[in-house]
Batch of 2 targets.
Target 1
Amino acid sequence: MKNKRVRKCLFPAAGYGTRFLPATKAIPKEMLPVLTKPLLQYGVEEAISAGLDTMAIVTGRGKRAIEDHFDISYELEHQIKGTSKEHYLTEIRDVITKCTFSYTRQIEMKGLGHAILSGETLIGDEPFAVILADDLCDNEEGDSVLTQMIEVYEKYKCSIVAVEEIPLKDSNKYGVIAGVEIEESLIRVINMVEKPDPKDAPSNLAIIGRYILTPDIFDIIRETKPGKGGEIQITDALLELAKEGKVIAYKFKGRRFDCGSVDGFVEATNYFYKKETL
Ligand code: UTP
C-alpha cells in the first residue's frame, strides 16, 4: 500500500441537499450550476488537474442526472455537430475523455463517513482522494487545492485533510482540528471534533471538503459508532488515525466557497462570473 500513487477520487454525492430545496427536489445538489457548469464537474476537473484519472461517485436515489452528465448524449452531439454552438460542449467532452467514472449507491444516508465506506467497493486497497463537490475551491495563483494536497501526501504518505481558519462562531458547522505545526502550513493532528460548540472548539482550523485517505480508514469506519447528529462521521474515524500520528492538516492556498449554503453559492457565482468576464 505504502508506495501506491493516488489515482482515484471519491465523490460522496448522496446527501439530500435540503438547504437547497425546492431546487434539489428532483435535481442532485451536485448538479446545480455555478455559471454554466455543475458543481460536480468543477470537482472532477480539479481531480484531473491533480493527475487523477478514476472518478468514483457515491450517489443515491434521484441522482441519475449525474451519470447522464458524464456520458455522451448522442442526440445532442448530432444536433450540435458542425454548428456555431459546438464549442459549448468542449469542456465536458474533454473531461469525459480524460477519466473513467464508476458509481455506487449509498442505500441509507447515514453520514459522510458511511458514504465514504460505501465507496470502498470502487476504491479497493489504495490511497484515494475525496472531494465534496459542494465545497468549490479555486486557486488563481497556481496549483489546485487537490494538487497541493497530493504533493503533501507524496512526502508524508498518510491521510491529509485540508483546513482553513474560520470565525469561531461557525465551529458548529465543521470538523475542527488541533495539533502541532511540523512545517509551514502543515499540522500533525492530535485532536479533531465534529461540529463543536465555539466554547469546545480545539482551534479555529476547520476541515473543508478535500481529503486524501489511506485505505485503512475503511476498517476504522466500519467500527465507528454514529456520532454528532446520529451520523457516522469521517471526523470520528480520522481521530483514530490521528491518535497514531497518521493525519496531517494542510492549510491550503486558494479560496473555498461553501456552495452547500445559499450565501456561499452566490459568492461563488459572483467570483467565477468576475473571473470569466475579466
Ligand atoms: P452535507 O451535510 O453538506 O450535505 O454533506 P447534504 O446533507 O446533502 O446537505 P443539507 O445539509 O441537507 O443541505 C456533505 C457532503 O457529504 C455527502 C453530501 O452529498 C455532501 O456532498 N453526504 C452526506 C453523503 O453522500 N451521504 C450522507 O449520508 C451524508
Target 2
Amino acid sequence: MKRLAGKSALVTGAARGIGAAIARAFVEQGAFVFVTDIDDAAGEQTASRLGSSATYLHLDVREESEWLATIEHIDQARGPLDIVVNNAGITGFERGEHVHDPERASLESWREVHRTNLDGVFLGCKYAIRSMRPKRAGAIINISSRSGLVGIPGAAAYASSKAAVRNHTKTVALYCAEQGLNVRCNSIHPAAILTPMWDPMLGTGAEREQRMKEFVSDTPVRRFGMPEEVAAVAVLLASDEAAYMTGSELSIDGGLLAGSAAAPR
Ligand code: NDP
C-alpha cells in the first residue's frame, strides 16, 4: 500500500530543488500533486516529468490574491487538499547582494526575505486550513531551516524568517487542535542540502569543489544532504504514520546541531 494513496497535495516552490524532490516522492507514494512556483517554465517541466499524477499552477506565495484563486481552483477541480508543503524560500543572496549582517543589511532586503519566507508561510497555512476545514483533517509541512534554530551573523533576515516559521508552525498546530481539526502542522529544519539555492554561494568551476568542502567541514557527516533525503522526511510527516505528530520540528542536518564546535572534549 502506498503511503499517500488517494491524497491530494500542494507544494510551493516545487519547480526545482527540495520542492521538486518532495513533489516526486509524494507522487511515488500515490498522491496527486499540485506543483506550484513562480518559475513557470521549470515548474511545467517538473510537473510533466511526474506524469498524470501532477499538474503545474503558478503561485507566488507572497500574494494573497494568488493563494485565494489557487485554493478555489483546486477545491473545484479536485476537492479539499490533504497536504500542503510551504517550501518556497529565498536566502536574499539571489541578486548578488552579499551584506546580510545585522549591522549593514538593508531594510529593503530584510523585508524582501521575510515577504517570501514568512508572509508566504503565513498565507500558506491560512489557505491550507481553509481548504482542509471541510474534511477536518490534513497535514501542513513548513520548511524552515537549521538557520531557524540558531543565529546566523551573515544571514540575519534569513535566520529571523526561518525562526518565525518554526514558531508559527507551533501556533498553527495548537490552533487547529483547539478548533477540533485533525490538521497537523510540523516544521522541517534542513541544513546544507545540495540544490540550486547554493549556486550563488558555491560558484562554478574549480573553486566550487573547494567551497563545498569548506561549507561542510563543520558537518559531522562531512557532506551535503540531498533533496531526496528531505523529501523522505516530508513523506513521513504527510502520511498517517505521523498521526500523533503536530507542532514538532525535525532536523535533517547531518548531525550539525547535535553538538557544538565549542563543546568540551
Ligand atoms: P531553490 O532555490 O533551489 O528552489 C526554490 C524554488 O522556490 C525556486 O524554484 C524558486 O523560483 C521558488 N520561489 C522563490 N520565490 C518564490 C515565491 N515568491 N513564490 C513561489 N515560489 C518561489 O531552494 P531549495 O530547494 O534549496 O530550498 C527550498 C526550501 O528549503 C527553502 O525554503 C529553503 O529556505 C529551505 N532550506 C534549504 C536548505 C538548503 O541547503 N538547500 C537548507 C535549509 C532550508 P525562482 O528560481 O524563480 O526564484
